[in-house]
Amino acid sequence: MGQGQATILLVVCAAMWSFAGTWIKLVDFHPIIINSSRCVFAALTLFIYFKIKKDKIAVNKGTILGGLIMASVMTVTVAALSLTTAANAIILQYMSPVYVLIISAIFFHQKVRGKDVLVVIFSILGVTLFFIDKVAAGSLLGNVLGICGGILFGISFLYNNRTKQNPLHIVFWGCVFSALIGIPFYFLYPPHITALGAVAVVMMGSVHLGVPYILYGLAIQRCSALNASVATMIEPILTPIWVFLFVGEAPGKYALAGAILVMLVISLYSISNARAAQKAAQE
Fold first, then answer.
1. Where, by residue number, does the polypeptide cross the bilayer (predicted)?
2. Kindly report the CA angle at 156 between 154 and 162, in degrees rounded to 5?
3. By CB neighbour count within 10 A (0-12 exposed, 13-18 middle, 19+ buried), where does 24 fall?
């Protein structure tokens, strides 16, 4: 597989991930039940892939810890998407590079550059705009969970970057733990299952999580960091568009302004870092 094909695969992954908000908005389940049920099908999809590839799923402290972190990311993200607008939730998670930067500076004593400080300042300004809009208590909680989801996603990235475990094995265990977390909630908040809800859950698990993660695992090692950064920007752009077209949900004007600012800042920052890494590798 060449770099061009790998980049196309990443674009396909981002496009498939972008439907998460739409599917979640169409399912009238408790958020944790939504995440639990979709992860059953995601884990099954990954399990079939491992069987076909004859890849033995690793069971050790590294994959279990990574799986627990991943499960927390998935659970909090779905809760955020359920409680606030899809645009708010996805952009707040898209800020994960900023959270990685802050965590790395505080806990790993990573050197902070001028552009790092600027990206944090402008990102915080953008996020502040999310909370200016008049929102209900549930939407406010969704915004807070969106930030928490981004922080957890950043922690997950740092963990995967420092572990020698297979990332797909970590995702698999994340799906398994997410499915298990939801079991008590099926009894506390019995879901009203409809044909649309059933289809949405299966699609979320297989098409939104399982297949894209497999494609991502195949493509990411054959794609430059710059191409990967640009390709995956499609997700935060498409997510609110799909939700608006299929559900009719639109973010507030201040939230929209904040989303544009955050996406612009993070996109430029990611491209800048990828170019710097590419240049350093060539020297």
1. 7-26, 32-50, 62-83, 89-109, 116-132, 138-158, 170-189, 195-216, 228-248, 254-271
2. 105
3. buried
The DSSP call for residue 110 is P
Which of 271, 256, 278, 255 minimizes the C-alpha distance to 119?
Answer: 271
Dihedral (CA of 30, 98, 152, 233) sign: positive
* Structure token pair of residue 102: 């802050």
Three-class DSSP labels, 207-246:
HHHHHHHHHHHHHHHHCCHHHHHHHCCHHHHHHHHHHHHH
Q: Averaged over 234-254, what is the pLDDT?
A: 81
- Supply the pLDDT for residue 216: 79
Q: If you average pLDDT over residues 112-117, what whole number do you get?
A: 81
Whole-angstrom CA distances from 35 to 39, 117, 146, 198 are 6, 35, 15, 13
Residue the block writes with tokens 């809800």: 197
Q: Whose structure tokens read 């999580």?
A: 209
Q: pLDDT at residue 211 above 70?
A: yes
